[in-house]
Design a protein that fits this description.
Strand order of the largest sheet: 12-11-10-13-14-15-16
Largest sheet: 7 strands, mixed
Oligomer: single chain
Number of domains: 3
Structural class: alpha/beta
CATH architecture of the largest domain: 3-Layer(aba) Sandwich
Helix content: 25-40%
Strand content: 25-35%
Radius of gyration: 36 Å
Number of helices: 11
Shape: elongated
CATH topology of the largest domain: Rossmann fold
Distance between the termini: 79 Å
């Protein structure tokens, strides 16, 4: 009895150990499967990124902290091992996959090549695809039209580390803007002449007299004299055409561009409603997040060049790359002004403002820029500001110094509307403008009023907007 029990107690631990081994193997197998599945899902997310279009990415003046990982043209192999020297994965904050659109064969599969390039990067830097805090982008170069030109372009990955300076990002954004502007074409068409007439009716004597006998009247007999029978005078109805006005009859010279070169043109469509800038001073946020809207402002001004001759402009970048801890409300700087000028000069000032800084911290010096525009352009009775909906206003406490209406065209709206932008508009007596041509006047608004922007419906209450609901089946 005792011996049997002892043997049973010795066998029990062995069985438990075998069961634990089996469970461990199953867990490791499932974990490996989940890892592969997660990596595949992450790769699909990266493949779904919409490419941004550039003419050609310049790589000759990249700042410290930017690494170029060169790859073969039409290949997925890294060609320089030295590119990975001194590259620490922990310091990476952004990665751009860069390729050219040119292809020699119609059956060439660019997405599949992109996939293999991402896989090659993951092989060299394990875990990089899932590493948090990295901003991923895909750039498509379109200037190359021959294999020789395409082969000279950069192909591979541009890796930005925490040491990268903002001008690297700015160079890419300016390159994209220049490409879109290069697609602008001069257009000439004839507006046909149109004359509007007013028809005037009147009765005129024919000089003859009508017979009193109906049979003679039907036969068309007419008399030259009234006679003793007092014949009636014959009259006829005359229609006179009087010219009321003319329109057309001239040629129109304008500029057009391919709207497919932009993700959307809603800001441009809104701006086209503005026919004159005589009473405005335009204040434009040109920090990095505003680039998709800045290019639409440039297109608008290029299409309507007369606006630059009468306009006053101020571009601000939140401090010319000043360290965030040095920025003080009202004394941040990074303000660039230009007025009554041509397109090339205005564009040069705007690009210089972008190159000097991309914002740094999230909050922007909007009110400082407004106050500077009022100081320099006192004749402007209204400020038109392009505001980033996602950025807080760091100097909102200075809004009491603004002494004229500020209309804000709010960009980058998703599920919230920046309450500080609403405060700027309400306290200055201005209006909110939204891409798509929607206007909102907080002075006349009532609590509970609804505002529809695309498929999103916001409710205005207590001087703030909250997302009420999203319409299904709309984008």
């Amino acid at each position: 009895m005792f011996t049997g029990v002892a043997r049973t107690n010795n066998l029990l631990p062995a069985a438990v150990i075998n069961l634990m081994r089996i469970r461990l193997i199953c867990v490791l197998f499932l974990q490996a499967g989940f890892t592969i599945s997660a990596q595949t899902a992450r790769l699909e997310q990266l493949m779904a990124i919409r490419p941004e279009i550039v003419g050609e990415l310049g790589t000759d003046k990249l700042p410290a902290g930017t690494h170029l990982l060169h790859m073969d043209f039409a290949g997925a192999s890294f060609v320089r091992s030295a590119d990975f020297r001194n590259l620490s994965a922990d310091s990476i904050i952004g990665i751009k996959l860069v390729y050219t659109r040119f292809k020699e064969l119609e059956r060439f599969d660019q997405p599949e090549l992109n996939r293999r390039r991402f896989e090659a990067l993951e092989k060299r830097l394990p875990g990089i695809l899932k590493q948090p805090g990295i901003r991923w982008e895909i750039l498509e170069q379109r200037n190359a039209i021959t294999r020789e030109n395409a082969a000279r372009c950069f192909h591979g990955f541009v890796v930005m580390t925490s040491r990268v300076v903002p001008s690297a990002e700015t160079a890419v954004e300016i390159s994209k803007m220049e490409y879109v502007l290069s697609l602008m074409k001069d257009t000439q068409y004839q507006v046909p002449l149109r004359i509007d007439y007013k028809i005037k009716k009147r009765r005129v004597s024919t000089g003859f007299y009508l017979p009193r006998n109906k049979a003679k009247l039907d036969l068309g007999i007419r008399y030259e004299h009234k006679s003793l029978w007092f014949r009636k005078q014959e009259v006829k109805l005359v229609k006179d055409s009087i010219e009321r006005g003319r329109s057309g009859g001239y040629e129109v010279h304008t500029k057009t561009f391919d709207p497919k070169s932009l993700p959307d043109t809603m800001v441009l469509n809104t701006l086209n409603q503005i026919r004159s800038l005589k009473k405005y001073a335009l204040v434009q946020d040109v920090t990095g997040s505003m680039s998709p809207y800045t290019i639409q402002v440039l297109l608008w001004l290029q299409i309507k060049p007369h606006l630059m001759q009468e306009g006053r402009f101020l571009f601000f970048n939140d401090g010319d790359n000043m360290p965030d801890e040095w920025k003080l409300p009202g004394k941040t700087g990074g303000l660039y002004l230009v007025q009554h000028t041509g397109f090339d000069t205005l564009k040069s000032v705007l690009y210089r403002s972008m190159g000097k800084g991309t914002g740094g911290d999230l909050a922007e010096n909007n009110v400082e820029a407004i106050l500077k525009a009022i100081e320099v352009y006192p004749e402007a009775d209204t400020i038109l500001m392009f505001g980033d909906n996602q950025a807080p206003v760091k100097d909102i406490r200075l809004i009491s110094k603004v002494n004229r209406p500020v209309n804000v065209l709010l960009c980058g709206i998703q599920n919230t509307i920046n309450p500080q932008m609403v405060e700027i508009v309400k306290r200055t007596g201005g209006k909110l403008m939204f891409p798509g041509g929607v206007w909102f006047d907080p002075q006349k608004a009532r609590d509970g009023q609804l505002l529809t922007l695309g498929n999103r419906v916001f409710e205005y209450k207590n001087q703030k907007f909250t997302l009420s609901y999203v319409k299904r089946g709309m984008r």
